[in-house]
Amino acid sequence: MTSVLEFRGVNASYDGAVVLQDVTFAIDDGETVGLVGRNGAGKSTALLSVYAVPTVTGDIAIDGKIISGRRYEPAALGVCLVPQGKRILPNLTVTENLHLGRAAKRSGIWNIDTVFDLFPNLARGAKRSGIALSGGEQQMLAIGRALMANPRLLMLDEPTEGLAPVIIDQLVEALRKVQSGGTSLLLVEQRIGMIQQLATRYLALRKGLLVSEGGISDLDKRDVQEMIAL
Fold it and tell me: Do the Cβ atoms of 137 and 97 come closer than 8 Å?
């Protein structure tokens, strides 16, 4: 089976400061993987490495094809990121923000109607500007915009940051529906409970190194928690 995303000995740095060191892992079609570790471990950098934001050496492959470092290429190949901080455009309406996700021109089940079905709050506020949305609605919009690209793999960087528990529960249910459509998820999240609800296995980074990986139930083991300092 060809993995939807594969890191092969990846190193990543910013202005010479090394953040990731010799990281190797693969994400298969249809699976959800949690990427865990303390703040500063390199989790966000791992996601951004797919888009060549840091300086990257080693190989990153999508569906077996080594990508070249062009930032539009991953989305065209079916790998999309919901970034930390949402990064929606505040002066565009909900619908206009969603249409930005169509730039990859991939076909699939996700369109305005199916995104509105997934997030009814967005449907009710379709003509509102991004700046008028609550934090939870902005996160829904960021996820919806990424889904409009019909990704095979959706990467999410701290999607619950700053959100109320009731909104987090809604996001979990929405992501389960995304999973049911066959989309893979790579989830960076400090709330280990959320990862345990969605993922089947985990990868753990510590100081830029991949130090542990295994089934999601292993995250309950004390030796694993101590190793990755959760």
Answer: no
In the chain, DSSP finds a helix count (H) and a strand count (E) of: 9, 10
Please give the DSSP secondary-structure letter assigned to residue 108. S
- What CATH code is carried by the domain that includes residue 113? 3.40.50.300
User: Which residues span the domain enclosing 23?
Assistant: 5-228
Alpha carbon distance, N-terminus to C-terminus of the chain: 32
Tokens describing residue 61: 């492959």
How many structural domains are present in the chain?
A: 1
Contact status, residue 36 vs residue 228, Cβ threshold 8 Å = yes
pLDDT digits (tens, 9 = 90+) for 85-139: 888 998 999 999 999 999 888 999 999 999 999 999 999 999 999 889 999 999 9
* Predicted structure pTM score: 0.94
